[in-house]
């Protein structure tokens, strides 16, 4: 599968992203279905607030985790994703000769988040790191919103609060990251040497990458190319806290404090959220918009092929010549009195056909009263209502190369 993805990415990065989205959906839906079947939907009670903490190597995630928890009054220990690989659940999989991949990590993480100690909130350290994991965070949020809506007017409503996801990214540049990693490695070596000599204290693990500047550099570049790029995809969806982690710890914590305080002031009250949550988020509409459009077009042909053909012919013969004359501006406004458009479904067909071909069409119906005849007895003017369909078509205009 990896070789296939690499080949696809070389040909078309968009195809790789589509594969990663599909992989995430398969993985997440499989894990979610298992939890739902095993525990029951009403028992899938996740924290109302989750901080997804990430950052460049050496940016200070471990140093600042406690500060974030204290700031938000969170008492449960952080969920360190790297530690999940050595958890009892993961060890059972290893002992059975199974690999601990994305699916297994996500299942262990979700089960951990279901622990009642995380009821008020949790910090997840080191997740998400890949496009697949980013998509799983989106899917989890959608499920929690769905659960909230399902139970909002029931006895379980207090257990399904409005979810708050915060993406916290601590950032340092390449030079600072390598410097901190190597310094951390040297500190660990000095500490372990002192423990061995004195017999007091405990030895700490030393990361191999912290002992080799080249390896530390590679670790940073991996973060920049994979994790950082994937995380940026979440900026438009969740609270996204990008924090400059350069400087002394006190300065960095002041930035964290200011950032979390500002974002906290933007959160909706629970009652307000419940009122407006029945309106779908714009991003959710686009997820299946293309398939819905295809289904509608196919249904038009099945139900009323003749009318659909008339609409297509109207567009081809009467509308497109005008659209083509406005190819530079990218906007055309067309008035039509065609009787084809008198049927409401014909208007829907017209808009969908334009959409399928990459245009954005809006139709307004204007009604004008026009004189038709004069009554010879009363000399009153008889009028009729004339419908004028104003069609606005928008598309990407042409760029004109200007000479110098």
CATH class term of the largest domain: Alpha Beta
Output the radius of gyration: 30 Å
- For the record, what is the CATH homologous superfamily label of the largest domain? P-loop containing nucleotide triphosphate hydrolases
| Residues in helices, as a percent range | 40-55%
Question: How would you describe this protein?
Answer:
The protein is of the alpha/beta class and 404 residues long. The protein has two domains: 2-281, Rossmann fold (3-Layer(aba) Sandwich); 289-394, Translation Initiation Factor IF3 (2-Layer Sandwich), CATH 3.30.110. The protein has 15 helices and eight strands. It has helices at residues 2-11, 13-39, 61-71, 81-84, 88-95, 102-113, 131-151, 174-198, 213-231, 249-264, 270-276, 282-287, 289-303, 305-325, 344-356; strands at 49-55, 79-80, 122-125, 164-171, 239-244, 331-336, 360-374, 381-394. The protein has a five-stranded parallel β-sheet with strand order 2-3-1-4-5, sandwiched between helices. It has a three-stranded antiparallel β-sheet with strand order 6-8-7. 24% of the residues are buried. Mean pLDDT is 86; it is low at 1-9.
């Amino acid at each position: 599968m990896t070789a296939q993805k690499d080949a696809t990415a070389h040909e078309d990065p968009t195809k790789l992203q589509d594969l990663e989205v599909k992989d995430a959906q398969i993985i997440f839906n499989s894990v979610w279905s298992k939890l739902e079947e095993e525990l029951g939907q009403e028992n899938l009670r996740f924290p109302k607030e989750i901080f997804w903490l990430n950052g460049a190597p050496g940016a200070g995630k471990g140093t600042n985790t406690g500060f974030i928890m204290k700031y938000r009054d969170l008492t449960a220990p952080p969920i360190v994703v790297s530690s999940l690989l050595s958890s009892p659940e993961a060890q059972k999989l290893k002992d059975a000769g199974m690999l601990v991949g994305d699916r297994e990590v996500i299942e262990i993480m979700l089960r951990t988040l279901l622990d009642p100690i995380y009821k008020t909130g949790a910090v997840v350290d080191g997740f998400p790191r890949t496009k697949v994991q980013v998509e799983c965070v989106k899917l989890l949020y959608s499920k929690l919103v769905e659960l909230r809506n399902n139970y909002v007017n029931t006895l379980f409503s207090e257990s399904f609060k409005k979810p708050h996801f915060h993406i916290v990214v601590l950032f340092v540049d390449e030079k600072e990251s390598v410097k901190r990693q190597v310094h951390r490695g040297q500190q660990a070596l000095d500490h372990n040497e002192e423990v061995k000599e004195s017999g007091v204290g405990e030895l700490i693990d030393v990361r191999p990458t912290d002992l080799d500047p080249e390896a530390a550099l590679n670790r940073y570049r991996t973060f920049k190319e994979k994790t950082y790029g994937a995380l940026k995809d979440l900026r438009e969806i969740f609270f996204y806290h990008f924090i400059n982690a350069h400087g002394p710890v006190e300065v960095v914590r002041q930035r964290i404090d200011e950032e979390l305080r500002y974002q906290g002031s933007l959160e909706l009250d629970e009652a307000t959220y419940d009122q407006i949550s029945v309106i779908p988020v714009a991003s959710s509409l686009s997820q299946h918009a293309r398939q819905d459009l295809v289904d509608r077009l196919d249904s038009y042909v099945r139900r009323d092929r003749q009318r659909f053909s008339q609409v297509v012919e109207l567009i081809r013969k009467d509308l497109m010549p005008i659209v083509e004359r406005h190819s530079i501006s990218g906007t055309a406004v067309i008035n039509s009195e065609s009787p084809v458009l008198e049927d409401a479904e014909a208007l829907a067909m017209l808009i969908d056909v334009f959409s399928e071909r990459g245009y954005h069409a809006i139709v307004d119906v204007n009604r004008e009263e026009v004189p038709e005849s004069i009554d010879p007895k009363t000399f009153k003017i008889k009028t009729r209502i004339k419908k004028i369909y104003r069609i606005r078509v928008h598309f990407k205009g042409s760029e004109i190369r200007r000479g110098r």
